[in-house]
Known about the structure:
By secondary structure, the chain is mainly alpha-helical. The protein contains 3 helices and 2 strands. A two-stranded antiparallel sheet has the order 1-2. The chain starts with a helix and ends with a strand.
Amino acid sequence: MTSALAGWLQLVLLVAALAACYVPVGNYMAHVVTTDKHWRVERRIYKLIGADPQADQRWSAYLRSMLAFSAVSVLFLYGIERLQHYLLLWAGRGANGARTRRDPPQGHRQGGHRGAVRRDAHDGHQDRHDHR
């Protein structure tokens, strides 16, 4: 099977799956949004955060919620960036910590001094590099 045929087959299967699911999923979503009944988990969360599920939300409360969510999201992403070298799958390493082809060889120094001459491992030619 060619890659073009596989792509078209994938597109056809996606459209068929969406056509088969849009009515039942749409009915379920309409029921969830329009019902007044709350699940037990929802009621506990509302009680925990002190929210009234029947009251309308004012613009000022929405603004505070949006800014708080954005601040928490930024802090979370900053934390991921700061702790990235401790996380799994960083720098092209697999879940078991094995190196991949993209990692530099052990002992390889990045950069070098200006005008460094080095041998390329792939072809053995000397290249002169000006690092500016």
